[in-house]
Every structure is written in structure tokens, then in C-alpha cells.
Amino acid sequence: MGRSGSEIEQRLKDIGHSLPHPAAPLANYVPAVVSGGLLFVSGQLPFGADGKLSPSHVGKVGAVVTETEASRAAALSALNCLAQAKVFLGDLGRLRRCVRLGGFIFATENFNALAGVMNGASDLIGAALGEAGAHARSTVGVAQLPLGACVEVEAIFEIAP
Amino acid sequence: MGRSGSEIEQRLKDIGHSLPHPAAPLANYVPAVVSGGLLFVSGQLPFGADGKLSPSHVGKVGAVVTETEASRAAALSALNCLAQAKVFLGDLGRLRRCVRLGGFIFATENFNALAGVMNGASDLIGAALGEAGAHARSTVGVAQLPLGACVEVEAIFEIAP
Amino acid sequence: MGRSGSEIEQRLKDIGHSLPHPAAPLANYVPAVVSGGLLFVSGQLPFGADGKLSPSHVGKVGAVVTETEASRAAALSALNCLAQAKVFLGDLGRLRRCVRLGGFIFATENFNALAGVMNGASDLIGAALGEAGAHARSTVGVAQLPLGACVEVEAIFEIAP
Predict the structure, then answer these.
(1) How far from chain centre, in Å, is Cα A51?
(2) In angstroms, how far is the first alpha carbon of chain A from the final one?
(3) A25 or A15, higher pLDDT
(4) Which of A161, B45, C32, C67 is the most exposed place for a label (fewest CB within 10 A)?
(5) Do strands A151-159 and A95-106 pair parallel, antiparallel, or not at all (unpaired)?
(6) Who's near C131: CB < 8 A, 6+ residues apart?
(7) What end-to-end distance do the CA atoms of chain C give, in Å?
């Protein structure tokens, strides 16, 4: 039902993305945990292929970050979720589907086009996983994010045993 | 152990609510996903029976939205979670219990009576599901919500196979 | 694989903590719910051993609450998650692992050292559970929290049948 790992990575390449090398495991929390057939991926910031936050992805959406850049940042955060999944699973072909994305947007109190920003993440997951990418999601505007990033995305995937 | 679908809808009618026709499935994200016996419902805004946000449910709680109206909006958001569950499952009788609600309140930095607002959602789920409505929850005040809504509620339900 | 309940409580004592008596069950929401092998713990505020919020844990981090105090508050919130788990399970030895922590920090828009604050929670769970404490997490800055608390932490644990 799902795509093979190489097919998923090819789809990403087709839209101009390759999986970044995500941040190494930290101390008492880790990038991903499996329990009961679900893979919980920690909230991911929009680190680029160079492992850094672009200055255009730091700060408040609606003030210093444009909606277009924020949507790109959301796609990058989702890409980092996939990258963490690959590190954990070894092969993205083990992903059966995306169950849920949580999107946190560092937004001004006057910017409420949050859904459009988060579509950057949803569309990337859809492009990568196809039908298996259709997920539940919640999108909220927050008062601050780690490192002042404009977006953070967390994910839950269903995986093959 | 749970109530039948018609009993759940009757309980809602008894307290003056009927299930709205919720928003149709969107592109790369969807209103609900089932995995491993859990139904994950996307964050729901307080759309009314007419499918629209009431102007009294748009804006910051503690500034332009009163605590009472925000609590009503939380109930409506929870009602939309049930409506999405019905569309997905066909019959609310398949709900075994409500596992978790996540409540996001668009609040001023001086308004911290967030629990009272979220009780609107918890009480509606309790009225609809009875004992099976007792859920874990998290309530936070956020900097913005889609469309400027004053409340968003997401849900996880346990369902019968 | 996990530690016994008494071993977990001894580890907490070793670092100067004892489990508080957490807030009693509320009306239509409850401190914890089990479904499908997962224990969902409601968002916990940093109540102390006396069941109260310390004044040093109320208000915005970066303004009236220091990063050090906020980190202590995060540890207390995580401790309350464990306390709720013990009330629910009877014995913390039934915890197989911590799956996920969600951290909400009441922060000024200029304070973005959120990860350091949330490490207070992650380190406490790590100290208590050892390897089984390694969890996924998401950390965000929010606009307000119940009672004006500086931190709220929610948890998902995997439990033994």
C-alpha cells in the first residue's frame, strides 16, 4: 500500500528536495520513538541541507518572515521529520502512513493565514507519500519557538512491524 | 460500555446541539485518521451549524471575546470533533471513549482563566459520551489561530474495531 | 527492561525530589487515560510538594521568571506527570518507557532559549527512568497558560499490560 523507500526519496528529489542529515540524538530526549506501531517524531525546526536555520526562517511570520518563506520553512520542517524517520527506521519504505502533523507557527497577533503556511508541510508529506500521506493535523500560532525559528512541525507515522 | 450513536446524538439534542455538517476533506490533510484503534481528529475551529465562524468567536479572549463566549466556542469546536468522527466512522456508537483533547485558546497575555474556557469542550464531550467521555487534556494559550478563531480543539478517540 | 517502581522513586529522591500528591480527578476530564498500551497524562503545571504554584513559577519566562527557575518548573511539571502516572497505575514499575513529552513555555517574544527550559523536564524523566526515559518531545512558547504558570508539560508513556 505504501511506497518503497527509494520511491519516496525519488518523489522528494522530483520536487527539489533531498533528505537532510538531521540533528544527532540529544541527551535525555531523542528525535524519534516507536511505540505500538506508531513512530513519534520530535518537533523539527526548518533546518536546511546544511544543517542550519536560514535567516529568512527566523522570526515572526507576518513581521520579518513572509507567508511564502514560512510555507517553505514548514516544508523543510516536514522534510526533517522524514529525515529523522529514515535515520530511525533505516528505510522510509517502513512508513505505512502519516497519521498526524502538529504545526506551530511563530506568528504576529495579526497574521492568521496559518493554514496556508502549514500547507507547505502537508503538501511535502503528500508529495512524498502519496495517498499514505493524508494526515490529521493541528495548526496553531505560538508566542515563540526554539532558536526563534518561524515554524516547528512534529509528526506521528504508522509503521510496518 | 459506550453509548449507541443515536443515544449520543440524543444527548447532544438534550443540551441544544445538533451535529454540524463539518468541512469537507481537504487536499493533503484530512479531518480524521485511524491508526491502531485510535481516531485522530484534526484541530477543529468553532464553526456553527451554518458552517461559519460567528463574529463573537473571532479574536482574542480577554480582549474582544468574553470568557463565556469562548467557552461556547470550545463546546462548538468539540462538537465539530464529534461531527468529523461521525463522518469518518458512520456511527458515533463506534466511539469507545475520548482519550485526549488538546485545547488552544487565542488569549491575551493577561487572561489566564483558560481552564474555564476549555471546560466548555470537556463538558460537551462528557454530556455526549457519559463516562466514556472522561479524557486527558492539555490547555494552552496561543498567539494566533487559523482565521483568527478564539479556540481550536483537537481530539483522540478510542474506537471499536 | 524498565526500572521497578521503588527504584524509580529512589532515583527521584537521589536528586532531591519526592512525588507530590497530584490534583484530584476533575469533572469531565481526568489526569490520565490509558488506551492501547499508552498512558496519556494531561498537561501538568509545576505544582510543588505543597500542591501550590510557587510565585517564582508564575509569569513570563524572559520577563519575571528566569531561565533557571523555568527549568526547575519544567522538572516539577514532569514530576507531576509521574505523580499522576503513579496514582493511575498504582506502581511506576508499570511504566515501560516515556514516549513523548509536550512542553509549553509561557515566554516573552524575545526569549527563545526554550530548549534549555524544557531540558529540566527531560532530565528529570531521564533521571527517573534511565534508558526508558528517552522520549520524543516538542517544545513551544505559548501566549498564556492556566493560572499564569510559566510551564506546562504533558506526557505519553508506554505501559506494561
Answers:
(1) 14
(2) 14
(3) A15
(4) A161
(5) antiparallel
(6) none
(7) 14
User: What is the least distance, in Å, from the CA of B129 to any CA of chain C?
Assistant: 10
Please give the pLDDT value at position A45: 95
* Dihedral pair phi/psi, residue C83, rounded to 5°: -65, -40
- Show residues of chain C in contact with B111, CB under 8 Å: 144
Fold of A5-18+31-159: 60s Ribosomal Protein L30; Chain: A; (3.30.1330)
Q: How many CB atoms lie within 10 A of CB B27?
A: 10
Residues B110 and C45: their CA atoms lie apart, in Å, by 18
Please answer yes or no on whether B158 and C35 come within 8 Å at the CB atom: yes
Question: What is the ipTM score, two decimals?
Answer: 0.94
Please report which residue ranges of chain B form alpha helices under DSSP H: 5-14, 67-89, 114-129
Structure confidence at residue B28 (pLDDT): 84
Q: Is B128 on the interface with A (CB under 8 A)?
A: no
Asked if CATH classification 3.10.20.70 holds for the domain at B5-18+27-159, the reply, yes or no, is no
Pairwise CB contact (< 8 Å): C142 & B142 = yes
Query: What are the sequence ranges of the domains in chain C?
Result: 5-17+31-155
Residues of B in contact with A36 (CB under 8 A): 36
B68 vs C22, higher pLDDT: B68
Q: Which residues contact C73 (CB under 8 A, 6 or more apart)?
A: C46, C54, C57, C65, C120, C149, C150, C151
Q: How many CA atoms does the CB half-sphere of A24 hold within 13 Å?
A: 1
Query: Are A122 and B29 an interchain contact pair (Cβ–Cβ within 8 Å)?
Result: yes
Instruction: Write down the pLDDT at residue C27.
Output: 66
Give residue-wise pLDDT tens across range A135-161: 999 999 999 999 999 999 999 999 998
Per-chain mean pLDDT for chain A = 94
CB contact under 8 A, B140 and C152: yes
Contact list in B for residue C41 (CB cut-off 8 A) is 136
SS3 (DSSP) at B34: strand
